[in-house]
Amino acid sequence: MIKFASGNANFARNSAGRAILSILLAGVSTLTVAMTVTAIPAAAQFRPGGLIRPGTPPVVPPPGTGTPPVVVTPPVVVTPPVVVTPPVVVTPPVIIPPTVAGCVTGQTSSAQTVLARPIRQNGFRPGNGGRNPVAIPPGTGCAPPSTNILMTSFSNGASLPNTGAPLLGRVTAPTTVRSLTGEIVGVAGSLRSLQVEPTGGQFAFFVAGENMRPGVTTRVKMVLERTDGTREEPIFQFGHADDTSGIALALNRVSFGATPALAARVKQIGFQAYIEEQLDPLKINDAAFAAMNTDALLSLAPDPTKPVPYWKFEENKDFVRFATAAYSNKQLLEVMTNFWENHFWTRTEDAFRATNANHDENIKYRQLAFGTFRDLLFASAKNGLMMDFLDNNTSRANSINENYARELLELHTVGVNGGYGDADVFAVARILTGWSYEQFTDPRFPFDVPAESNVRFIFEPTRHDTTSKTVPFLTRTFIGRSGADGVKEGEELLEILANHPKTREFVCGKIVALLVSDAKPASFVQRCVATWGSTNGNIGQILRTILLAADYRADASLAGTKVKTPFEYGVGLVRHAGLRAKAGREQGFYSELRNLHNFSGQNFAEFGVPTGFPEAASSWMGAASLLSRGRRAGSVLTSDGNYSADYQGLAVSANMLTAEAVASYLLGYMTGDRYRQEEFDSVVSVLKGADGRLDMSMDQKARIRRAIGLIVVLPSYQLQ
């Protein structure tokens, strides 16, 4: 059984984590797959020979097996210096570039022809199957001994990213191929038998990051055996380069997951251009999402002839939240909208009056997500739902309720280590007396609730403490005011807290934890704080400072270190698999998705803790959460009566035609090019099935769906 291990996640390194994932894999409903990989004995896969070595007699195949690959007239004497009989004459000096030294024939390229295509997802190149040859200038690399095995994604002598990469190639005359294998020279267990597409000759071989070493040339040996008994054994060589593309971060941190189109766009325009594009959401074309009219989901009812009951509206709000995150092109905006809503967390489960307030709150945070923190803080403080959730409506001059005052300091601004004490909390609570809400009838939706169906902020002067209050840790006394002016005391307090040094440090730490690392690297927090000070807390500028920092992309230790929350996991599943609700089946589709994050520990309607949901990986790595998300993902993927998805089209549109090519393509954009050899082999095994090959000329939707079902429970998929 395959042992799963993630390069950057502790939960996948230890035995407990592997046990959890093994159980999870076994429970993905009808998507369950056998993941035991049996190695084919080397003697059954290959025939020795093909290379002439000093002192080694030529290999002659048994009668009837074909023409020997190399015909050598004995005796063969190979002694220095090497004498090669015409027509190839190699005389000193022969200079082989260091980056490609050690090619099989020792020849230098004079005009090596390879199949090249413009860069596309996963380092592959789009086009007509790579059939347009491009000549590489003389001296640019070492030519393999023949042109029958051609690399199309990386030319011989190129550098591969340190995270690994699939090598996409093509074999000429594919109908004459008996077998093709690939192996990383010097890496035990790297030998793989590869499928060759019978029409165009496409093949793919995955070079995993764990099989590469900094500063060491990676040598990939391909062995091609044809039906006539001839064989070729070229060795392709690749350098090693740090991956500073930022692709994984773009697809996993500043979005809820890549669609194939998004992955292609980020790789086309680059990480920096993508971030700048996302920070200007008004210029993003989101017409397709707007046409979905997701607000119509709010009116879904068990009985269309009756008003929407309150409990159903609670579900429907989650449907809109999920659909917006899954289908909007304004991905960074959605990431930050959910961040701010979680930072200023409220709940409406028992507040029947607040049927639409939480939806309005989500809209407000979306409008302000890239604005100033000051505006976000004011929107939260003057949110009637917040006043109801933290009981500030019950606080009055002679009966102080400290709930909101305490959370304002501890959770929304300066943080628990902000330097305040009980006396400060009490003084702040007195300043905020009179801040309350009123109920009103919401005419927008016909809810089956009492007429007073919503709440909004009001200030009640008669409840306000009009005496002066001193907040010790702010070294500030607020002069008491009466009447409508009493609200200004609270507004002055918010102005001070919004730009307090401790607020900058605390909130910056949370933003860095979201986008960079759970460990909140001090260098990023300091840069965030500095930008806050110079821009008056402009969130867009703060995000630009963090995301466009050179070390954000260059520091390989950052990618793949965070764990997705259940909501991020579910939204990513929809985006990666291309799921869309069928007309009239929206209820069933979104209910399955809501169950996924609800039963995995992220129930928006019932979470009553004002801290909001945690961001740290440790909160989402428990067995119950991991098992639930995997099983619920299987339930979603098998409920295909509720959705449409073009599983086979995902691969065909990208010209991925073999099991290895499809596996590398799916894993590439679904994990942000961060996956391991064992995971790749598992997906290939599912795609090949019992017959040992994936024939994309036939209907393979079921196999590809099972492969996606496997990918979403792999360790690398849980990571950001």
Please give a structural write-up.
This protein has 720 residues and is of the alpha+beta class. α1 runs parallel beside α21 and α20 packs antiparallel against α21. The N terminus is likely disordered. It contains 26 helices and 19 strands. The longest helix is centred in the middle third of the chain and has 18 residues. The strands form 7 sheets. Strands 4, 6, 7, 9, 10 and 11 form a 6-stranded mixed beta sheet that branches. Helices cover 37% and strands 11% of the residues. The two termini are 25 Å apart.
In short:
The chain has 720 residues and is of the alpha+beta class. 37% of the residues lie in helices and 11% in strands. α4 packs across α5.
Tally of helical runs? 26
Q: Could you estimate the helical fraction of the residues in percent?
A: 25-40%
For the report, how would you describe the main beta sheet?
Answer: 6 strands, mixed
Distance between termini?
25 Å
Q: Work out the radius of gyration.
A: 31 Å
- Global morphology: elongated
Oligomer: single chain
**Which secondary-structure class do the elements indicate?**
alpha+beta
- In terms of DSSP E residues, the strand content is 5-15%
Annotation, overall tally of beta strands:
19
Uncertain residue ranges = 1-146
Mean pLDDT: 82
